[in-house]
UniProtKB/TrEMBL annotation:
<dbReference type="GO" id="GO:0012505">
    <property type="term" value="C:endomembrane system"/>
</dbReference>
<dbReference type="InterPro" id="IPR010652">
    <property type="entry name" value="DUF1232"/>
</dbReference>
<keyword id="KW-1133">Transmembrane helix</keyword>
<dbReference type="Pfam" id="PF06803">
    <property type="entry name" value="DUF1232"/>
</dbReference>
<keyword id="KW-0472">Membrane</keyword>
<keyword id="KW-0812">Transmembrane</keyword>
<protein>
    <recommendedName>
        <fullName>DUF1232 domain-containing protein</fullName>
    </recommendedName>
</protein>
<feature type="domain" description="DUF1232">
    <location>
        <begin position="86"/>
        <end position="115"/>
    </location>
</feature>
Amino acid sequence: MRIVFELEPDDLQRFREATARAVQRVACAEECDIIDGAKHALDQLPIGTAPGFVRRQLCEVQRLILMVEDEAWGLPREDREQVLQALAYFSDPEDMIPDHIEVIGLIDDAIMLALMLRRLRHTLEAYADFCAFRLALGPPPGDHAGRLAHAGALARQRQALHARMHERGRVESEEAAS
């Protein structure tokens, strides 16, 4: 069965307010605490009894954590803060619908994640491309010159993908404004 609903402006406003609270939590917390909180929530939440839509969105939390922890990716600060906001909202057990309420407790988390993932889609696409490039490149060679060449190739790819994700975000913002 497929259930579709439309968020009205008042509904979106509630999510914006929840995002603002997450922004405040990010500003007041250490990055490692936010990431640890998200990991803890993934381990403790009743994900097995959650609807499939919710479970699919929660898998994206794992991808966000991997991306923000990936030192080779070097996520730029502004993008990193957006990811941390999503993780902060997710790890708050007393968000719009308390997480302990069976079946529906994680629906607001899934909706918020869907909204934030939509905003982060260019970043996630670039990260997926970076991971594919790194995998195709293979492990760094054992010799010094080979390691330098490997690191240089990763750095050039990372730089190009960061530029691409920011350009796509800029173009999208300009299109939305017009």
